[in-house]
Amino acid sequence: PDVIIEAQFDDNDAEHGQDHFQDMLADDITKLSLDTDEKGEAHSSYLYRTKQDDGPKVNDPRLLPDKFLQRTAKVVYILEKKHSRAATGFIKLLADKNSELFRRCAMFSPVDHRVPRAYVSLADCPPDFVTRPEDYSNMLFICRIVDWKEDSNFATGQLAKSLGQAGEIEPETEGILTEYGVDFSDFSPEALECLPQSLPWVISPGEMAKRRDLR
């Protein structure tokens, strides 16, 4: 049937596909309206025609012009991981205290809700976190996602470091820079040697004459 359909419809059919469908619908309605002697006869005529008609149906998506179709796709491979897999957030104990997971893991809740919550090992948490979790309720941590199994609602993460209290400038800034993979470490001695060594440094008059002043 696929070959027959492709042979029957050319570019002209595709351009005028909607008119063709309307004509087919009008023909069906006309044929049904002719069989109005008895309700049963009209119904049986319609059923008979549907069973015997092996040609293309009106709602066959293969007959629709491209402009009426919504293209779909499927992700088959991750070419490059753009996200740093690091997130800023808080840690807290699991709700189910009787579970085996409660004795091994804590829950990491990221500030950015686009990042999934993750299980982190209690070994990575502060030593007194289990006995005094309230002391760390407002403490920011950096967690890096290392895995996310298909059958789990939560990812698996590893705590990198403690940043400090939430709401303070330094921890919040460090967390944002870490999430976006910005290197904010100190400049190397080689980089510092490229800077002028005689301080204070000023732009020479000759250099000023060649530049456009945007101050």
UniProtKB/TrEMBL annotation:
Pfam families: OB_Dis3
Transmembrane segments: none
Protein name stated in the entry: DIS3-like exonuclease 2
High-level lineage: Eukaryota, Metazoa, Chordata, Craniata, Vertebrata
Domain CSD2: 106-181
UniProt KW keywords: Cytoplasm, Exonuclease, Hydrolase, Magnesium, Metal-binding, Nuclease, RNA-binding
GO CC annotations, alphabetized: P-body
InterPro entries, per the entry: Dis3_CSD2, NA-bd_OB-fold, RNR_Ribonuclease
Main location per the UniProt record: cytoplasm
Organism: Pelecanus crispus
